[in-house]
User: What shape does this take?
Amino acid sequence: MEKAFLMSTSKPLGEISGMAMDKKGRLVVFHRADRVWDERLTALILSTFDESNRLSDSLKPIVNSTIAIINATTGQVLEEHGENLFYLPHGLSIDGEGNIWVTDVGSHQVPF
Assistant: This one.
């Protein structure tokens, strides 16, 4: 049985929606910062999506960085990207040429 690997990072991350290793051996993490994907309207929190599965008009792009480049050995966050670009980060992939591809379920886009 394989063992899980737990890593502490030098900065807090939100809900992680995707991660992969880049060509330099660094961990690339796509996360939701302080955004939480909730499914229903509660008394205190607006729902992420309405009854028609459209993104709530009250949500704006996440102001904090949503992509972290991390030293896979030490957990040190080396770079941060993605401020004010994403609504609800969903997935991440790195192709054979090292290009990073992410999906944002909130804007229904695959930005590049």
Summary: Confidence is low (pLDDT under 50) at residues 40-45. The two ends are 37 Å apart (CA to CA). The chain is about 0% helix and 30% strand.
